[in-house]
Design brief:
alpha+beta, Jelly Rolls
Length: 232
């Protein structure tokens, strides 16, 4: 009986340690509002002035260990400003750049107005990066919502916009808290107000080896105590 109980406790310890090796998480960040615009004078587009900006920095302090990002989803309500003459055919278009990583990215949050710097020259980098442009046929004064979801495992982007171009990349990294931020901009001769900007990040974490060993030592220590009591 004692041998059986001791063996069972050791097996339980191994199961607990193994189960601690990987866990999944999903975090949604609410990142306020921005205006993106290209006020270039036809026919010379991409000369500005431009409106663009970086959202506030989001942080989930509960994400710890070796992080592997599996998917990113974004959404925002959008209103097209008028009066407006669309020189880019009948499309409204803009770009998302989503940064995710274990530390801040060095981009000051806030709106930049009337800049003559092309926003595509400001594109940044991060351990996990999703860049994609969305364009949709202009029909009404308001586009109810733009959404997009990228799956790193299948390398696929799904969106409710008519046209999309995307680039994404990620590497595993150790984190003590997970940060995210979005850069939004346009060079498509339109002006769009975005509100309710959100990003949802999903992935897996593996505890640091020291944490796993500590858990295993604790469970095995408990097994030893119980075994000694059974032997008494």
């Amino acid at each position: 009986m004692r041998t059986f109980v001791s063996t069972l406790l050791v097996v339980l310890a191994c199961v607990l340690v193994t189960s601690a090796n990987a866990s999944s998480f999903t975090t949604t960040y609410n990142l306020a509002s921005l205006n993106v615009a290209d006020f270039s004078t036809p026919p010379d587009f991409f000369t500005g002035p431009f409106n663009y900006g970086y959202t506030p920095l989001g942080l989930d302090g509960s994400v710890n260990g070796l992080v592997n990002i599996t998917s990113i989803s974004v959404s925002a309500d959008a209103t097209v400003n008028f009066p407006l003459v669309l020189q880019n055919g009948n499309l409204i278009a803009f770009n998302w750049e989503v940064y995710v990583g274990p530390s801040p990215f060095g981009y000051a949050p806030g709106q930049v107005n009337d800049s003559l710097t092309r926003p595509d020259t400001l594109t940044g980098t991060a351990p996990t990066l999703l860049q994609f442009s969305q364009a949709d046929i202009y029909q009404t004064t308001a586009q109810p919502q733009f959404t997009g979801t990228y799956d790193f495992l299948s390398n696929t982007l799904t969106s409710n916009a008519t046209y999309n171009l995307f680039f994404a990349g990620t590497v595993p990294y150790n984190a003590n808290g997970l940060y995210t931020q979005i850069f939004m901009w346009s060079e498509a001769d339109d002006s769009i107000d975005f509100s309710n900007i959100t990003v949802t990040v999903s992935g897996t974490t593996v505890p640091e080896p020291s944490s796993v060993m500590l858990m295993g030592s604790g469970v095995l220590g408990l097994a030893g105590v119980i075994r000694r009591k059974l032997s008494a």
